Every structure is written in structure tokens, then in C-alpha cells.
């Protein structure tokens, strides 16, 4: 057998192993229920839940922070407290909606951008994005090559109930005005590295 033929056979034998190794490496990086919740492996949420989110939207309360500030000032045990901007709206879960806390926290952040006229607010046109629109923001960012590790770790989030990074870590990143603008621009969303920021969605947003 000629040398060229030997090299060709060697390459053909090595290619399946290389592909298998690459696939195995990808599988090892896929996160499970501990990080993404009990619906980590679903392809889509139930139709009834999708309909609920589309028709009911969100539970939004304005003026929470000023009241909280007043209570803290009146409390004799308060030594110091850190509050977010008074224009931030408080979002809570719909009954039966499940673990969408990360999305609700992002809506709180965007409520600040809109209410204060912060740089990038024009992209929202005065309206808060829905859970499905936030999923589109993130998926579109992955399509553009931004933080694509998130797609590998989650397997994609569009139309699912998988957990995403919560606002505690997200806030550290979007404190940069340039990133805030990118988050507001639905075609250029930027989120923290999933491996560094994804926590259980049960964690609370600290006022």
C-alpha cells in the first residue's frame, strides 16, 4: 500500500473518533436540573402555560421602593439600607407560572431603563418585553455569536421553562451603560457568562 493510501486510511479512522470526542465534550458542558430547574430537558412548555403567559402578562406593582424607604427610615433598628431607584416596578409571578423569576427580574431592570429614559430606552418603545420576547433577545444574541456558551449549556431556551441567570449577577454586568444599551437593543443583547451567573431562580432580588 502506498504512503498516500496509508495516510488516507488513517484520516478516515481518526475522523469518527474526533467527532465523537467533540460531541462528548459538548454533552459534558450541558447543564442539568440542578442549574436549569426540573424542566431542564423539555423542548417546549405546555400550551396552557404559554397561553397563560400571553394573556395574563405579568403582575406589576409601582411605588414599592418609596414605601419601603419610608418604613426603613421609621424603623429604629435600621442602621443602613441600600435601595434601588424609586422608579423600578416590582414584578411577581402569576399563579401556576413556575420558575420564571429570572425573566421577572430582567423586567424590573428594564422598567428602570424605560422610566428614567436611560440610554437605550428607545428600543423598548415604552413597553416592557414579555417573557417570550426576552427569550428572543437572548436567542438572537447567541445567533450573533454573543455568549454562545449559554446555548451549549441550556440547549436553547426559546419556548421553555428553563432557568436563566438571575438579576443579582445580571445587575453586576448591566451596570455598564454600554451593556445596558445592548440589553435594550433586541438585536444585540448581552448577558453574563452562564457558567458564572446561573443560579437557582429561587434566589431573591435584593432591594
Structural write-up:
The chain has 207 residues and is mainly alpha-helical. The protein folds into two domains: 1-30; 32-197, no CATH class. 52% of the residues lie in helices and 3% in strands. It is built from ten helices and two strands; from the N terminus they run αααβαβαααααα. The chain has helices spanning 3-29, 33-36, 47-56, 64-74, 101-116, 131-143, 149-154, 167-174, 177-184, 194-197; strands at 59-61, 90-92. The chain has a two-stranded antiparallel ribbon. The longest helix is centred in the first third of the chain and has 27 residues, at 3-29. The radius of gyration is 22 Å and the shape is globular. Mean pLDDT is 73; it is low at 166-179 and 186-207.
- Mean pLDDT, to the nearest integer, reads 73
Q: How many helix segments?
A: 10
* Anisotropy-based shape: globular
Spatial order of strands in the largest sheet: 1-2
The end-to-end distance, rounded to whole angstroms, is: 74 Å
Q: From N to C, what is the helix and strand string? A: HHHEHEHHHHHH
Overall radius of gyration: 22 Å
Low-confidence stretches: 166-179, 186-207
Number of strand segments: 2
Main beta sheet: strand number and arrangement? 2 strands, antiparallel
Estimated structural class: mainly alpha
Give the percentage of residues in beta strands: under 5%
Q: Tell me the count of domains.
A: 2
Instruction: Work out the helicity level.
Output: 40-55%
